[in-house]
Amino acid sequence: xxxxxxxxxxxxxxxxxxxxxxxxxxxxxxxxxxxxxxxxxxxxxxxxxxxxxxxxxxxxxxxxxxxxxxxxxxxxxxxxxxxxxxxxxxxxxxxxxxxxxxxxxxxxxxxxxxxxxxxxxxxxxxxxxxxxxxxxxxxxxxxxxxxxxxxxxxxxxxxxxxxxxxxxxxxxxxxxxxxxxxxxxxxxxxxxxxxxxxxxxxxxxxxxxxxxxxxxxxxxxxxxxxxxx
Length: 229
Fold this sequence. Notes:
Layout: H1 10-27, E1 29-31, H2 32-42, H3 48-56, E2 65-68, H4 70-74, E3 86-89, H5 90-93, H6 99-112, H7 122-127, H8 138-149, H9 155-169, H10 177-187, H11 199-213, H12 224-228
Helix pairs in contact: 8-9, 8-11, 9-10, 10-11
């Protein structure tokens, strides 16, 4: 993309940053051209020229996402059409595309093929600009109640583990039992030797939460229940 000055109002630019953050947190990766379509469907439409001038001048300091092209990712000299640059969530590029990061990026892209984006209404969509946001559904509250009341954890620790598990679900490769177990392991709760509780019950409750409530990147922001019924 060629450098050009962005003439959009500060209000519009601030709103665009919110859309980019929300898209990264809902989808993991999305082409900016597709994000523009989502934005334009919910707001006064922007021209491609104005949108691209904004992208060219974005400041990613303090953000948990970035916009990259294929050469940025593969360092192969390839050219990427401007609207096919991608918004990536931080976990996909945090290690500057070592082999593990590339594998995770390619796995996610491959598993998204053929799926449709979950486009929430504007108010719901923008809640996901917070990378720790998720909807506290009845299944989530039941899982959190178990951690609060049947594990010996303090309320604060129980809530932190419940939140961490829920946030981890979004980046899992599927909604399998293995992925549920991996998300729980990442939270660190199984490393606590000062509490005793039923791992089987926690994993059962987490399976329910993941199926009904977790918006997965591999499902382009859908919950498994929305896709599979």
